[in-house]
Amino acid sequence: MAIDSSGVKIEDRPFDQVRQEAIDQLIMNYSHGVISAEAFERRLDVASDAKSFQELIDVVADLSLQPDTQYQQQRERSFSPRYQAGNDTRNENIICVLSSNQHSGQWLVPAEIRIVSVLGSVELDFSEAIFQHQHIVIRVNNWIGSLTILVPEQVNVVSNMFNIIGSTDNKAPCMGDRQAPQIVIEGYSILGSLDVKLKKTIKEKFSAFANQCRQMFGLNKS
Predict the structure, then answer these.
(1) Quick one: CA dihedral 23, 3, 36, 50, positive or negative?
(2) What is the full DSSP assignment across 43-61?
(3) Nearest to 144 by CA among 116, 168, 118
(4) 0.85 cut: is pTM over it?
């Protein structure tokens, strides 16, 4: 079954929206055992790297299943950031001198995080974090230290760093919608480094979700 063209013609729709529709069809059919793991990986590569609408149309042209309500609900749960209402978490101060500090897992993210790193190493992993605020500020004073921030693709990251013989590398594309958390990083780095990157690539994320769906429908990876 081809991508839905009953409304606005495909060529006039946003390309990324059509790409996501094709990937959803691939995952839906793979999770129900219609195509093999090898075929899914091959087609996912095509959909992820596609540059034209025709490539997206062709990659799902012979697939029969369309994403249903159960699939959409599971996708929403898996790809939406986790918010938790309740008592506000106090702002956090991280001081790292000749040492290392790591935040990972399901930790509560405060509205503001202050980091002072002197010859230290700090890693903040937001991939499973629980957000209480949509806007988070990370204030950085980095002296000959390293700061690594790992984020899922549905979190937006803005970097406003001032570097003195330092480096800032933001490889996390802003893909979240208006309701997504936005992390703003500001401050300075002297002879230090700041790296912002995705915990998983988009392809790795979709592959993991596809295998999760297979388990949900009673199938193992094959």
Answers:
(1) negative
(2) HHHHHHH--SHHHHHHHTT
(3) 118
(4) no
